[in-house]
Design goal:
Number of domains: 2
Number of strands: 9
Low-confidence stretches: none
CATH topology of the largest domain: Rossmann fold
CATH architecture of the largest domain: 3-Layer(aba) Sandwich
Radius of gyration: 20 Å
Mean pLDDT: 96
Number of helices: 11
Shape: globular
Oligomer: single chain
Distance between the termini: 42 Å
Order of helices and strands: EHEEHEHEHEEHEHEHHHHH
């Protein structure tokens, strides 16, 4: 399978490198030429446009920032869809609205192109180690065709259902992570008020039954949410807003997890 990759930032760059090192014929395109520089020592080809990348690819992986970026790169002038041939697949690794993936899938189906949503969790270090988590939604056949490529940077790859289900799962994951940040941060703050060192409490809790990824993130950021707020506050705010809106439209009851996430966003000065 020939692979095209667009979105070579801190997350996408290591993913693309793993694909190249996995022996796949790989073509890259980037808005910012500087992000292509780390691939100068590889066999990866460089396309002049997304359309050219599409013409030389069977699978195109996108790791761009948001919904508008996905739409522009795929459907814009000289977009991927202008070059990708029938039978091609577009994998959306970005975290976007599930409806963005569903609508794009319907649009691409007219060209004989499949779309799967495949948001990721774990960050650049996990991609470098080949242990990224990929949450996939889409047609079974298309997903199976992509698995060997995904396996170069991911373990596990979990197929969750139809197009959009990967995005829903990622949003739920981020909702719970945000909620966990809030509960962990306030527990550490309460301990400090009661005379227990934040550093020592975090050391104990991270080895106990209440340990969490969120707690360890706070511990590694100085014991407060300040640094995490600057790094991820806006993105978590976006994701919580999305899942809250989807729950409301589905007449679903989020319950305590949304309350806790809202509290965390308020603590990070990024209220929903």
């Amino acid at each position: 399978m020939r692979v095209g990759f667009i979105g070579l930032g801190s997350q996408g760059g290591p993913m693309a490198r793993r694909i190249v090192e996995g022996g796949y014929t790989t073509t890259l395109w980037a808005r910012r030429p500087k992000t292509l520089e780390p691939f100068a020592d590889t066999a990866a080809g460089i396309a002049e446009s997304p359309a050219e990348l599409g013409r030389t690819s069977d699978l195109v992986c996108l790791c761009v920032v948001g919904d508008a970026d996905v739409d522009e790169v795929v459907c814009g002038e000289n977009g991927v869809l202008a070059g990708l041939q029938p039978g091609g697949i577009i994998a959306i690794h970005s975290t976007v609205h599930p409806d963005t993936c569903r609508q794009l899938n319907e649009h691409c189906a007219d060209r004989g192109v499949s779309v799967i949503d495949a948001p990721v969790s774990g960050g650049g270090p996990a991609a470098e180690a080949g242990t990224l988590l990929v949450m996939v939604g889409g047609n079974e056949d298309a997903v199976q065709r992509c698995r060997p490529v995904f396996d170069t940077y991911a373990d596990p790859v979990v197929h969750l259902g139809g197009v959009g289900s990967g995005q829903l799962t990622k949003l739920l994951n981020n909702l719970l992570f945000t909620a966990n940040l809030g509960t962990a941060a306030t527990a550490l703050a309460l301990g400090e008020q009661l005379g227990i060192s934040t550093e020592r409490l975090a050391e104990v809790v991270c080895r106990g039954s209440s340990n969490s990824f969120a707690l360890n993130s706070i511990r590694g950021s100085g014991g407060t949410l300040d640094r995490l707020a600057g790094m991820a506050g806006a993105l978590l705010q976006k994701d919580v807003r999305l899942i809250a809106d989807l729950a409301q439209k589905a007449a679903a009851t989020p319950g305590a997890v949304l309350d806790a996430a809202d509290a965390a966003l308020a603590l990070m000065d990024h209220p929903r």
